[in-house]
Amino acid sequence: MNRIIFGGAFDPVHNGHINMAEKAAKALDGDVFFLPARISVWKDSSAPREDKIKMLELAIKGHKHFHIDDYELNSGEEINYSIDTIRYMKEKYPKDNIFYLIGADQVNEFHRWKEAEELSKLAKIIFYKRPGHQINDENVKKYQMIPILGDDYDVSSTKIRELKSLELPDEVLFYIVENNLYSGMVELNRILTPHRISHVKSVAKLAYEIAISNNLDKPLKYYFAGLLHDLGKDIPLEEQYKIVCEHFSEYKNLPKFAYHQFAGAYLANKMFEVKDKDMLEAIEFHATGNSNMKLMGKIIYAADKIEPTRGFDSSDLIAAMKNNAEEGFKIVLKANKEFLLDHNKSIENDLTSKCFKQYL
Questions:
Q1: CA dihedral sign of residues 94, 52, 164, 214
Q2: Residues 225, 272, 181: CA angle, nearest 5 degrees
C-alpha cells in the first residue's frame, strides 16, 4: 500500500492543502495521512491542538483516502523533525511504501533539513509542482524527488486567520467563527457587542442555508456577507455619519438608522478586504433595501429580518426563502412592511420606499 505523509501546521487546513492531497492521492493511488505539527510557526495565532484536529476532521470528511495521525502533536518534543516522523511511520507500516509530500517552496530548502539524505532513503519525496514556481533541480536530482503536477493554488493561511480569504472548506470556516479562533474573529468581537455577534452569526448561517437550498454558486460568500453585514452597527453614530459623508455622500440625508449599513460596507472593505461587488452591495443596503437588488442582497436583507434569534416565529418566512429566494424575498419584504407600519415606523426614506414600490 502507498502511504503519503503530509505534515504541516494546518493552522488552519485550507483548500490548498486539500488540493495537494487530492492530487498526490490520485497520482500515487495511495492514502494521505495528515500530521499536524505541535508548534506552529505562527505561534501567536495558533489554534489549540483539539481545534486543529477538529478542523482537519471537518476538512477531510467524505475523503475515504484521507486520514489524520496525531504523532507530532503527542510527541512531547518542542520541535518535530521530519526524519523522526518518517521513522515512526516506517515502524508503524513496515510493509508499505512511504511517500513524503512537500510543497514546491520546500524543495529548494530540502538540503538544509535534518538528515535530508537519510530521509530521502526512508521515504520517496514527492512535491507539488506549481506553474511558474522556480524549482531547485539539483535538490530534485540529488534526493530523487517526484513531482506531482497541479494547478497554481495560492492560498495564504495568514489571510484566512485574518478573515481576509475564503479559500478553505466551508465547515472549517464555520468552526473558526463559532469558536472565535484567530485574529479575524478577535477583531470582529472587538468591534461588535456580544449580542451583535450572536445576531450576525445567525444571519450568516441562515444566508448560507438559503443559498444552498436555492442551489446557488459559492454559498460561502453569502455566509461571509451575513457575518459582516452589521460591522458598522456598534460604532458611534458620529463615526457612522462621518463615513457616510466621506464615502456615500448621496445618502447622508437618510434617517440615522441607515448609516450603519454604509459604514458596514466601508469597514468590510477596509478591515477584511472584501472586494466582491455583490457582497459589498448586500451589506450596503441590507437595512433599507433599494430598487435594484441582486439576489445576494435580497438574501442578506431577508436573513437579517427573519433569522431565528429575532424573537418571533419566522419559520414560514424562512421556508419561503429556502424554497425560492426571489419569491420568498417579496414575502419577507411584505411582512417587514406590515411590521414597520404596525409599529409606527417611518418607511418614507428614499431607498425603502423605492424598494417597496419596485418589489411589492
A1: positive
A2: 85
Give the span between the Cα atoms of 190 and 162, in whole angstroms: 13
Residue 122 sits in a domain whose CATH number is 3.40.50.620
Range of the domain at 313: 192-359
For the stretch 95-133, pLDDT in tens is 999 999 999 889 999 999 999 999 999 999 999 887 677
Tell me if 18 is assigned to some domain: yes
Q: Are 330 and 359 in contact (CB under 8 A)?
A: yes
**Number of compact structural domains in the chain:** 2
Please classify residue 133 by burial: count the beta carbons closer than 10 Å to its beta carbon, then call 0-12 exposed, 13-18 middle and 19+ buried. Answer: middle
Domain at 212, CATH number: 1.10.3210.10
- Total Cβ atoms within 10 A of residue 347: 13
Between CA 218 and CA 197, with CA 230 as vertex, the angle to 5 degrees is 90
- Tell me how far apart the alpha carbons of residues 306 and 289 are, in angstroms, rounded to a whole number: 15
> Rounded CA gap, 348 and 22, in Å?
55
Residues 198, 308, single domain; the answer is yes
Tell me: pLDDT of 72 over 80. Answer: yes
On whether the CB atoms of residues 224 and 198 are closer than 8 A, the answer is no
Query: Are 254 and 127 contained in the same domain?
Result: no
Assess whether 208 and 333 both reside in one domain.
yes
Q: Are residue 128 and residue 212 in the same domain, yes or no?
A: no
Which DSSP string do the residues of 158-173 spell out, in sequence order?
HHHHTT----S-HHHH
Looking at residue 194, what is its pLDDT?
A: 97
- Are 203 and 307 spatial neighbours (Cβ–Cβ below 8 Å)? yes
Do 123 and 237 reside in the same domain of the chain? no
The three grid cell numbers given for residue 216, joined into one nine-digit string: 446557488
> Side chain identity at 33, as an amino acid letter?
F
Q: Which of 129, 155, 181 is the C-terminal boundary of a domain?
A: 155
Cβ atoms 206, 306 nearer than 8 A: yes
pLDDT 10s digits, 293-329: 999 999 999 999 999 999 899 999 999 999 999 999 9
Note whether residue 174 is domain-resident: no
Q: Which residues contact 79 (CB under 8 A, 6 or more apart)?
A: 39
